Amino acid sequence: MNLKIIKGNLFTSRCQTLVNTINCMGVMGAGIALEFRVRYPEMYICYVELCQQNFIDIGKLWLYKSEQRWVLNFPTKKDWRRPSQTTFLEFGLQKFVDTYLKKEITSIAFPLLGAQNGGIPEHKSLKIMEKYLSQCTLPIEIYIYDPNSPDDIFAELKRTFFSLPKQDIIDLTGLREANFDKVKKVMLDDDICSLSNFLSADGVGISTVEKTLLILRNN
Fold first, then answer.
1. If we measure between CA atoms, which residue out of 52, 40, 38 comes closest to residue 204?
2. In the chain, how long is the greatest CA-to-CA distance?
3. What is the number of alpha carbons within 13 Å of residue 97 lying toward its C-beta?
4. % residues pLDDT > 70 (the chain)
5. May I ask the CATH architecture of the domain 3-145?
6. What angle do CA 1, 153, 48 make, to 5 degrees?
7. Is 77 assigned a catalytic role?
8. Which ranges of 83-133 would DSSP assign to H, the alpha helix?
9. What is d(CA 27, CA 42) in angstroms, rounded to the nearest whole number?
10. Overall pTM > 0.85
11. Which helix (H) or strand (E) holds 181?
12. Which of 177, 201, 199, 219 has the alpha carbon at shortest distance from 38?
């Protein structure tokens, strides 16, 4: 079988392309979309612009190519405030089946579509995904999110953070001293092992995470 079901963290996948679940409103404020936002800030800017121009819609898949990875943006909601629908998944999956060869996607990793914040039960999402993706010939991974699973970069971020003097970090990132102290507290917590955990930590906001990631981008 070319289809693997994995309990873990999508960002540990070595597939050429990762799937990001999005809405059509230009908001990446929660869940896996938020993590893609802080990992690929240039992509997020493009996404907002495309939504403003009404180019993002259900059944349309937008492929973003960064130097590190390709990201296939898959709309599972029209409005971020409303739940997903199984028909939204089916429209997008059929589009993927019809176009992945043309897009030159050679391997791909999906999260459970519409399940985390979309309100679709995991078993139902998985059943729909298997129905469509089993028609494909490329290697496919479907990740069932495990909040206790480490990701690909947080350990490096933590190691780099503690290798630099406090003032160097503040100068490099623009973090305020109070926010630096909050980040340090998070980094000392052994239960936090991924950017997803970091983003959901008490007292840490999106801006703080985005600034902290500058440590990796400038070292």
1. 38
2. 54
3. 15
4. 100
5. 3-Layer(aba) Sandwich (3.40)
6. 85
7. yes
8. 86-99, 122-133
9. 14
10. yes
11. helix 177-187
12. 199
Mean pLDDT of 91-114: 98
C-alpha span between 87 and 132 (Å, rounded): 13
Q: Give me the catalytic one of 77, 158, 182, 211.
A: 77
Whether the CB-CB separation of 114 and 142 falls below 8 Å is answered with no
What residues does each domain of the chain span? 3-145, 154-217
Parallel/antiparallel/unpaired status of strands 62-65 and 70-75: antiparallel
Q: What are phi and psi of 196, to 5 degrees?
A: -60, -45
Q: What is the pLDDT of residue 1?
A: 66
In the chain, the N- to C-terminal Cα span, in Å, equals 40
Give the E-state strand segments of the chain in sequence order.
3-8, 17-22, 62-65, 70-75, 108-111, 140-145
pLDDT tens column, 21-51: 999 999 999 999 999 999 999 999 999 999 9
